[in-house]
Amino acid sequence: MGEVDPGVDLAAVVERFLAEHDPATTDRLEFLRARYDAGLAWVWFPEGHGGLGLPAARQSEVDAAFAAAGAPDNAPRRNVIGLGMAAPTILAFGTEEQKRRFLRPLWTGEEIWCQLFSEPGAGSDLANLATRAVRDGDEWIVNGQKVWTSSAHNARFAILVARTDPDKPKHAGLTYFVCDMTDPGVDVRPLRQITGEAEFNEVFLTDVRIPDAYRIGEVGQGWRVATATLNNERVAIGGRAAPRESGMIGKVVEAWRSLPEKRTPELHDRLLRLWVEAEVARLTGIRLRQKLAQGQPGPEGAATKVTFARINQQLSALELELRGEDGLRYSDWTMVRPEQVDMTGRDHGYRYLRAKGNSIEGGTSEVLRNIVAERVLGLPPEPRVDKDVPWKELQR
C-alpha cells in the first residue's frame, strides 16, 4: 500500500464512511468491523490493521466525529488490557499472521484479553516467575499459576510470560505467548477483594497447549517483549486521556459543591492542591499517550502511574472526610464478578476502597519508583541477583 497523505481530510473520510454505514440502522458489530477495515480504528496503525498510517495526534479528530454522529464505540473500558497492552505489543513484535488474527476482534471487543504475568511466588519481580513452558513439536505445554488477573473470567485470550529455559539467567530464559483461555487446562478462580467484588482472579495452568504460532517474539525474548507491554500498561493505567475535572477529581469537586456546610479552610486547601496535581497529571498523561501511540512507550509511564495511584488515594480519602459520618456508608457488599472497573459510577465508599489497589496493580509503587530512579533519573541501580549478566544486556 502507498503512503497516506498526512494532511488527509479525516472529517471527509469519516463523513463518507457514515454515509455508507448509518449508525442508526447498522448493526453495532457490523459497524465496528467496517470502521476497523476502513482504517478508522487506530489511525496511527498501518493500513490493513485498523489504521491509515497517520500521526497519532489525529485520532482525536476521528473519535470526535464519530461521537458527534452518535456512532457506537468499542466499549474500551471492557477491554483495557487488550487495547492498552496486547494490541501495541502484537503490533510491535507479532507476525503479520498474528496481527491479522488478533487485532480486529480485539478492537471490536469481540474478544476480551487478560494478562497472565504476576505469580504468587514472584509478585512484582516478574523475571522470577516459575510457570514453565516446554516445547513439544509445534506446541508448548504450559504449567503454573498466575494471580491478580483482571478480567480472566471474561477473557478469550491472555498475554502470557513463561519460563522456557531454566538454565539461563532469570531475565534471559523467558518467552512470551498468547494463551487461549478456553483451553481445558485453564482454571480461573475468583479472588474477592476489599470492595466485596471479584474483578481479579487466580489462574491455574495445567498442561495447557499453546501453538508455537501463538508465540510473540523469539524464544528467550520474553523479557524484552514483556517490558514493552508493561510500559504500555503503566501509561494505559496512569495516563488515560480525559477531559478536565473528570475522573476522581470530578467526583470530589462535585461533593464539595453540593455540601457547602461541610467545607473547612483545611479541606479547601487540600482540594485546591490536589486539583492542580490532577490537572498536571492529566496533561502529562496526554503527552505520554501520544508517545505511546507512535510506538515509543518509555519508563516515564512508571512515574505517571505512581502519581495516578497517589492522587486517587488522596482524593478518595478527601471525599470521605468531606462527607463526614455519611462517608462511612457503603452501598453493597454483594459478591459479583464485574466486567469492568467503574470508579466514578459507584459510590464514595467503593472509590475509597478500590483506590487502595491502585498502588499495587500495574506494578507496585515501590518498584515503579526504582524504575523512575534508575531509568529516568539515571541514579545508580541497586545490586542485581543476576550479577553475571550486565543490566544493560537485560534491557535489550
Automatic annotation (TrEMBL):
Output the Gene3D superfamilies linked to this UniProt entry: Acyl-CoA dehydrogenase/oxidase, N-terminal domain, Butyryl-CoA Dehydrogenase, subunit A, domain 2, Butyryl-CoA Dehydrogenase, subunit A, domain 3
Record carries keyword Ion transport: no
Please give the Gene Ontology molecular function terms for this protein.
flavin adenine dinucleotide binding; oxidoreductase activity, acting on the CH-CH group of donors
Q: Which residues form the Acyl-CoA dehydrogenase/oxidase N-terminal domain?
A: 15-110
Question: Which residues does the UniProt record annotate as the domain Acyl-CoA dehydrogenase/oxidase C-terminal?
Answer: 220-377
Output the superkingdom of the source species: Bacteria
Q: Which GO terms describe its cellular component?
A: plasma membrane
Identify the cofactor(s).
Answer: FAD
Q: Where is the Acyl-CoA oxidase/dehydrogenase middle domain?
A: 114-208
> What are the UniProt keywords, alphabetically?
FAD, Flavoprotein, Oxidoreductase
Q: Which InterPro entries match?
A: Acyl-CoA_Oxase/DH_mid-dom, Acyl-CoA_Oxase/DH_mid-dom_sf, AcylCo_DH-like_C, AcylCo_DH/oxidase_C, AcylCoA_DH/ox_N, AcylCoA_DH/ox_N_sf, AcylCoA_DH/oxidase_NM_dom_sf, Mycobact_Acyl-CoA_DH
Identify the Pfam families for this entry: Acyl-CoA_dh_1, Acyl-CoA_dh_M, Acyl-CoA_dh_N
Spell out the PANTHER family in the cross-references. Answer: ACYL-COA DEHYDROGENASE (PTHR43292), ACYL-COA DEHYDROGENASE FADE34 (PTHR43292:SF4)
**What family does this belong to?**
Belongs to the acyl-CoA dehydrogenase family.
Annotated protein name in UniProt: Acyl-CoA dehydrogenase
Q: Which organism is it from?
A: Pseudonocardia thermophila
